[in-house]
Design brief:
Elements lengths: L1 H19 L4 H11 L7 H24 L1 H15 L8 H29 L8 H19 L7 H6 L1 H36 L1 H7 L21 H13 L4 E6 L5 H9 L2 H6 L2 E6 L6 H11 L11 H11 L4 E6 L2 H4 L5 H12 L5 E8 L11 E5 L4 H12 L5 H10 L3 H12 L4 H11 L15 H9 L6 H11 L5 E2 L4 H7 L7 H10 L4 E3 L4 E3 L2 H8 L7 H16 L6 H7 L3 H11 L9 H14 L7 H6 L5 H17 L3 H17 L3 H17 L3 H18 L2 H17 L3 H17 L3 H17 L3 H17 L3 H17 L3 H17 L3 H17 L3 H17 L3 H17 L3 H17 L3 H17 L3 H18 L2 H17 L3 H19 L2 H17 L3 H17 L3 H18 L2 H18 L3 H16 L4 H4 L2 H13 L1
Parallel strand pairs: 1-4, 1-5, 2-3, 3-4
Antiparallel strand pairs: 6-8, 7-8
Helix pairs in contact: 1-4, 1-6, 2-3, 3-4, 3-5, 4-5, 4-6, 5-8, 6-8, 10-11, 14-16, 17-19, 18-20, 21-25, 22-24, 22-25, 26-28, 26-29, 28-29, 29-31, 31-32, 31-33, 32-33, 33-34, 33-35, 34-35, 35-36, 35-37, 36-37, 37-38, 37-39, 38-39, 39-40, 39-41, 40-41, 41-42, 41-43, 42-43, 43-44, 43-45, ...
Length: 1113
């Protein structure tokens, strides 16, 4: 039976050669040669096929013509290569099959050709059955895997897409099994037999002449690798027994570095004999030894069975030192059966002592396992400037924005950058290649052919499908590819990742293997296992999203987000924040699964909420979730979160639409608790729009729903919101009632976070009542509670409140300490919104200290943060602060512009509180310009709004500004009425020293105008006391200047001079624009005293000189 099968197969191969490709490659050459003139759009692709096939014919044509079974393999491979252009359906999958078969079969054929060139046909008879089996396998691939797709429709291809994926995986397994069975074991046997017979063969056959091998050409472009080259050269020259290994991921430029070293003049001067051996086509140690012997020009007739010892003797007997470079050693070293032989080979080579300098390059990060130490260099990616330089040199054009973006994605891989640049030089646009990369990954970068140096995909494939990578390691690699930020080594994520594997004990060995093959690296603190983007893009194409491990990983992340959804929890921050990119990606993959993972809708909403608090708007993923088959309640949750995000980014109309839809879903789903939360959110929305009455009505409805649902927590939070609303309206008694009830419920429910949040608002209540000691104690209590349960966000917001209180109490150093600590926490928990708010308060502190330049810088930093997180309300609030700063500097045009931008947004979102404040400051700008009518109109609008929303301090500030306006108009009675209203509010309700001082100064001016000098002096001195207590130097300067004018009017020139001098000193210290006017006032006093002439009193420069002399003395 076996003889019959062999006969049938022999006949099959004879017919195949005769009909499919007679006379081996002669007709293939002729047939393909005629195809090169076809004038079609696929000409380039066809030429690539021709080039590949003709090169194969050139390389292995002789052995194919002498060994029939090899000829059959060659013929079948030729047909597989040339069918590429005829495929019309499932092209991507078929091309993968062709590339895979071509790569493995070509390597086998080159190895067989090497054996044939050394030993002729001896030994090939033993390979007959293996060659027949392999040819039969190729014939099956051609008929069953490729031929059907020459005519298959796209529809059938689509139906069979899952089967196609399974077939591809099966094919890869069969190729790997054949490689192990034939390519390794059989090839070793042939090489060993051939070597022992070489002497006998040489007696009857003239030996082939060994032509000394030339070195590879010196690389023309070595950018970013000179330090590495110099380092290896120095190591080589500093040691008489140099053993250097250059390691790194595929495509990192190891061969380029090696050839640059070979051509370095310092190496040539020390080593007259330099040899280069590529192990790329040497899958056995015997073939590698043969290639080394060929490189050293050891005659075949003189080669012994123990060739490696003969190589060592040859080197020792050479009169000159030898520099030997073995490139791509991983080709043979990665084969499990060959690894110990390679290590032994290197051990014996090292016995050449000082006669030999050895340089080896290998994929991965693991050096050969020898007893002697290696000097190891691991290549990493090029930095950005070097990546750009390589691209611009090879492409011949400067890098534009799309080019920079793609270069960033390539992570400094020299091969990837080279392919990208060469494609651009051929006419591809960087923007097109960037788009192709985003869609196809590594497949986008190729310059024709399937060699690792012409295709990024093939280069990466060699590493991913290395013999060292077993199924478990490849599974782990695929799972890590699903996580853009990599696998965290921190708990609970690492333990969770272990749990999704079929055998959790295999994770650590898999990670070691992947690290050793340079496919992943451990980076960061805490550390994470990550891969370079090109490798990740390639691996993503191999992941089966429906596999149990992937589904388990997605479910793991959904459960983690759901279990740790509380933003205020420190443990939740520690777990979720570092994983945000991974959570997002796995949720997007989870949306493709059928059925959907449980709790998918809620997890998506929780993720978006976490992103929101980090200052990132991820709401775009929620509408796609709504299109999935989720329950009505999950739909409600998604709509609710959409509303929260819209409200956060000031899309208030959209927020209202989303909340309305959420309410409808909750009502349809008969979820009273959900209804309650929507009414609560409506209330917050109305507060944002300055609709305090509507807000109160919504909070009241929410309370009723929470009571019906028996939800104490929701009731407590609604009372908290009501308390804040009453504080906003300065209805302090009502605020106290609501906040007290909130605190009681939180205490009953043992809700520490809610209780701490309520204490924050109670502290605000004490501040409004000017009960600063009580406020400080309450804030300290809240801070302690947040610290106790690690509520980092709560800690930061409480510290901000404490800082603002210190600022209010004129404890500027204590305020700075609180702000600094709050900022540190916000940075730690990656809350950019919190950072922006703290920096805005720090700017206010610097304004109080008259550090205007520092305040400008701080405000700019806060504005950048608000711009980065796209927070228009925060941006507008900083622009308002900047407007006040510019007003202080008397830069009125710039102040106007900044305030106008802020006011426009405040009006759009109907934020009445901010509209009133911005309008008030605009009126002050008009007053400074003496545009009294415009100022009066602005103050009237502001006052109307303050009264509508019942904000007493706003009423006081506006009456103070109206008093100044009446003073400018010399309407003293009206001015007195307005100023006394303001002063009464400041002294009985607000107790803010700076505003009280400002009002007293205005009253001092009023009494001065009336000639009531005693009352004027009392008012100015009261203002000065308040300014000193508040550490407000600009206010002190203004009070001294007012006193100087009053003393001048009374004729007390000495007292006037002293007051003006002190005011001038203060203005100069803080760089205030009022220094010039104060100096002119002082000049008038000096003129009246006869210290200077009248003409000098108007000469600013001479006054400055005199002031300098006086102040020095």
């Amino acid at each position: 039976m076996r003889q019959s099968q062999t006969k049938d197969l022999t006949s099959f191969f004879r017919n195949l050669v005769a009909h499919g490709n007679p006379h081996s490659y002669a007709r293939v050459h002729s047939r393909l040669g005629r195809r090169t003139v076809q004038p079609t759009s696929k000409l380039d692709a066809s030429l690539n096929v021709v080039e590949t096939t003709l090169q194969l014919a050139k390389d292995v044509g002789e052995v194919a013509s002498k060994v029939p079974y090899v000829e059959a393999v060659v013929s079948l491979l030729s047909q597989i290569i040339t069918i590429r252009d005829e495929i019309h359906a499932n092209k991507e999958r078929c091309n993968e099959i062709i590339d895979l078969v071509q790569m493995k079969t070509t390597t086998i054929l080159h190895s067989l050709d090497t054996v044939y060139r050394a030993n002729g046909t001896a030994g090939f008879e033993d390979l007959k059955s293996d060659l027949i089996a392999y040819a039969n396998f190729l014939h099956t691939v051609l008929q069953n895997e490729l031929e059907p797709f020459k005519t298959q429709s796209r529809w059938i291809s689509y139906i069979n897409r899952e089967k196609n994926a399974e077939d591809l995986q099966r094919l890869e397994r069969e190729l790997d099994e054949f490689k192990d069975r034939f390519f390794v074991r059989r090839q070793v046997a042939i090489s060993m037999d051939a070597r022992t017979a070489v002497t006998l063969l040489s007696r009857s056959t003239p030996p082939k002449k060994i032509v000394p091998q030339a070195l590879p050409a010196s690389p023309k472009l070595v950018i970013g690798r000179k330090p590495v080259v110099d380092s290896v050269v120095q190591v080589t020259l500093s040691s008489s027994e140099s053993r250097v290994v250059v390691l790194g991921q595929g495509g990192m430029g190891k061969t380029t570095v090696a050839t640059a070293i070979l051509h370095d003049p310092r190496i040539a001067e020390t080593y007259p004999r330099i040899y280069f051996v590529s192990a790329e086509l040497s899958p056995t140690i015997e073939l590698l030894e043969t290639r080394v012997a060929d490189a050293l020009s050891i005659p075949q007739s003189e080669r012994a069975a123990d060739l490696v010892s003969q190589i060592v003797d040859y080197i020792r007997n050479n009169s000159h030192p030898v520099f030997l470079c073995i490139d791509n050693l991983e080709t043979v070293w990665e084969v499990e059966t060959e690894q110990p032989k390679v290590d032994r080979f290197l051990e014996i080579l090292s016995g050449a002592d000082s006669k030999l300098a050895l340089l080896v390059t290998m994929r991965g990060t693991q050096a050969p396992k020898t007893s002697f130490p290696w000097s190891t260099t691991i290549l990493s990616g090029l930095d950005t400037p070097d990546s750009t330089a390589v691209y611009e040199k090879l492409s011949g054009q400067p890098a534009n924005p799309p080019a920079h973006e793609l270069l960033d994605k390539l992570s400094g891989s020299p091969l990837a950058i080279k392919l990208f640049a060469l494609m651009v030089s051929e006419g591809d646009k960087p923007s097109q290649l960037l788009s192709s990369w985003n869609e196809r990954g590594a497949k986008a970068l190729e310059i024709g052919g399937s060699h690792r140096l012409s295709s990024l995909e093939q280069s990466i494939r060699l590493s991913v499908f290395s013999p060292r990578i077993d199924d478990t390691a490849r599974l782990v690699l695929g799972l890590i590819a699903l996580m853009p930020d990599g696998l965290s080594t921190s708990q609970p994520w690492f333990a969770g990742f272990e749990s999704v594997l079929p055998d959790r004990t295999l994770l650590q060995p898999a990670l070691r293997t992947l690290r050793r093959t340079a496919l992943i690296e451990e980076k960061g603190d805490p550390s994470r296992w990550q891969m370079l983007p090109p490798v990740r893009q390639f691996c993503l194409g191999l992941v089966d999203l429906t596999s149990p491990a992937v589904v388990s990983l997605i479910q793991l992340y959904i459960e983690r987000v759901s279990d740790h959804r509380q933003w205020a929890s420190s443990s939740s921050h520690t777990i979720n924040v570092p994983e945000m990119a991974n959570i997002r990606t796995l949720l997007l993959h989870g949306a493709k699964l059928q059925p959907l993972p449980s709790s998918f809708g809620q997890a998506s909403a929780y993720y978006v909420h976490w992103a929101l608090w980090q200052g990132v708007d991820e709401s775009a993923i929620l509408p796609s979730v709504l299109r999935l088959p989720i329950s009505i309640i999950q739909q409600a949750i998604i709509h609710e979160e959409l509303g929260v995000v819209h409200q956060r980014w000031d899309r208030l109309d959209s927020a209202e639409v989303s909340f309305t839809r959420a309410l409808e879903c909750y009502i349809e789903g008969k979820d009273t608790l959900g209804e309650a939360y929507i009414h609560w959110r409506y209330g917050d929305l109305h507060v944002r729009r300055g609709r305090s009455n509507a807000a109160e009505a919504s909070f009241t409805r929410a309370l009723a729903c929470f009571d019906q649902a028996h939800d104490g927590s929701g009731e407590a939070y609604t009372h908290l919101s009501l308390g804040d609303l009453h504080l906003y309206r300065c209805q302090l008694d009502l605020a106290e009632k609501s906040l007290t009830r909130s605190l009681e419920i939180f205490a009953e429910n043992e809700d520490r976070r809610g209780a701490a949040s309520t204490l924050q608002s109670i502290g605000d209540l004490h501040v409004c009542r000017n009960q600063f000691d009580a406020a400080e104690a309450t804030f300290a209590d809240a801070l302690g509670r947040f610290t106790e349960f690690h509520g980092r966000q709560g800690e930061a917001t409480t510290l901000l409140r404490i800082g603002d209180l210190h600022l209010r109490r004129d404890r500027l150093d204590a305020a700075e300490a609180s702000f600094t600590r709050a900022l540190e926490i916000h940075v730690e928990i990656q809350s950019r919104l919190g950072e922006a708010r703290v920096k805005q308060s720090m700017g206010e502190l610097q304004m109080r200290r008259d550090q205007l330049n520092a305040a400008e810088t701080t405000y700019a930093s806060a504005l950048d943060l608000y711009n980065h997180i796209q927070d228009p309300l925060g941006r507008a609030s900083v622009q308002l602060s900047i407007g006040r700063l510019l007003l202080r500097r008397n830069l009125l045009d710039a102040a106007d512009a900044s305030l106008a931008h802020a006011l426009l947004h405040f009006v759009e979102v109907q934020n009445q509180w901010s509209v009133a404040l911005c309008t008030l400051i605009q009126g002050q700008v008009c007053l400074r310009r003496q545009n009294l009518d415009e100022a009066g109109a602005a103050f009237s609008r502001a006052l109307t709004i303050w009264k509508q929303i019942d904000v007493s301090w706003g009423v006081a500030d506006t009456h103070q500004a109206l008093g100044d306006l009446h003073l400018h108009r010399d309407q003293l009675d009206e001015a007195e009425i307005c100023l006394n209203i303001a002063l009464n509010i400041y002294t009985t309700q607000i107790h803010y020293r700076i505003d009280e001082a400002l009002t007293n100064r205005s009253l001092g001016e009023l009494h001065f105008r009336r000639g009531h000098f005693e009352e004027s002096e009392l008012a100015y001195r009261r203002a000065l006391e308040l300014d000193i207590a508040a550490s407000c130097r600009v206010g002190q300067g203004q009070s001294h200047r007012g006193l100087g004018g009053m003393f001048l009017k009374k004729g007390d020139l000495e007292a006037s001079e002293l007051s003006y001098s002190e005011g001038l000193r203060l203005f100069l210290e803080i760089g205030d624009y009022q220094a010039t006017n104060c100096l002119a006032d002082l000049g008038n006093v000096w003129a009246l005293q006869g210290k200077i002439g009248d003409n000098e009193a108007s000469d600013v420069e001479r006054l400055r000189a005199r002031w300098g002399a006086v102040s020095t003395s």
